[in-house]
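Input:
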Amino acid sequence: DGGITQSPKYLFRKEGQNVTLSCEQNLNHDAMYWYRQDPGQGLRLIYYSQIVNDFQKGDIAEGYSVSREKKESFPLTVTSAQKNPTAFYLCASSIWDGQGAKIGYEQYFGPGTRLTVT
Amino acid sequence: EDQVTQSPEALRLQEGESSSLNCSYTVSGLRGLFWYRQDPGKGPEFLFTLYSAGEEKEKERLKATLTKKESFLHITAPKPEDSATYLCAGQISGTYKYIFGTGTRLKVLA
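Output:
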């Protein structure tokens, strides 16, 4: 079965602690993304990566870090510098034909991780 | 500014009562318009991709259409299991970026 897995489903942390969210895909997609979803807001892009060992900041990267050491894996670390980390985090992947490609491809999403920081 | 706006925010329908959800976009060069379904506490599930004005896609009770400024998700004779939040997103030509709307929360009553 091809798809994206995220773990854990729920995560609870104390303020001041770093926490890492896992994302793995077996769709053989080049591009992977991390989004944050808050009530009443659209999905906001944190980081994206189009190739192994390369990634770029999205719209709300402050307080987050990522790595892309393998094509299948794109973990997200929420650091203590993130001022409001409690949210639902979604990982996604897609085919990537380059920025000059004429058509875009749909993203496939994981089940999400709900992070609560108190 | 690139933007995707969905309306209404919430919609309640009786079972069998057909309706449409709207997604209007102002995107500088649209590479694709995507519809997703999201159930509470879960990740979005891909439904449709539309590329050019006039294009239509169908799946069971859902049909998505695209014009130069809007996309519609038509729901024909909905059932309670169609209750979910429906998201649309546009991908900007020449970039990695997908712009998401805030979604329409659909509730279908039996």
